[in-house]
Design a protein that fits this description.
Blueprint lengths: L1 H25 L6 H8 L8 H32 L5 H39 L14
Helix pairs in contact: 3-4
Length: 138
């Protein structure tokens, strides 16, 4: 199971690395997307540092939440295929418990970052993208 999980984590790491190296090349030209965004009224100039930081935090917390949900599914699969082996069931229960605790911590960190971002917006008098509040709407 560890070999299977490490194989997929390695694949996800390579995909993230590959897209991180290739996407900036495609981002050099916006292919008319800026014009379309201005026509539809979307926020296009994200030059504020706190917006960038909040987006990075949102991306990291979303990725961690995804990994946590995958861990819960893997532990559930271990429990399902344990065949009544009490040691495997206890191990799966422990993994699910730890993953749920991790998910609670991740959601708490997300709510704290939303609060801090909103307070920075209020203090600086700057609205976020689309006039929304919080990093979830950016």
């Amino acid at each position: 199971m560890k070999k299977f999980l490490s194989f997929w984590l390695y694949k996800v790491f390579l995909i993230i690395l590959f897209t991180g190296l290739i996407l900036p090349v495609f981002a050099a030209d916006d292919h008319g997307l800026t014009d379309m965004a201005e026509k539809t009224g979307l926020y296009t100039s994200r030059t504020d540092v706190y917006l960038l930081v909040s987006q990075i935090i949102n991306l990291i917390l979303s990725f961690l939440g995804l990994i946590t949900v995958i861990i819960i599914f893997v532990a559930g699969f271990q429990w399902l295929t344990s065949g009544g082996n009490s040691e495997t069931i206890q191990k799966a229960k422990g993994n699910i418990t730890n993953a749920v605790i991790g998910l609670i911590i991740i959601l708490s960190a997300l709510s704290i970052s939303i609060f801090i971002t909103d307070q920075i917006k209020i203090a600086t008098g700057v609205e976020g993208s689309r006039g929304g509040r919080g990093i979830l709407q950016q």
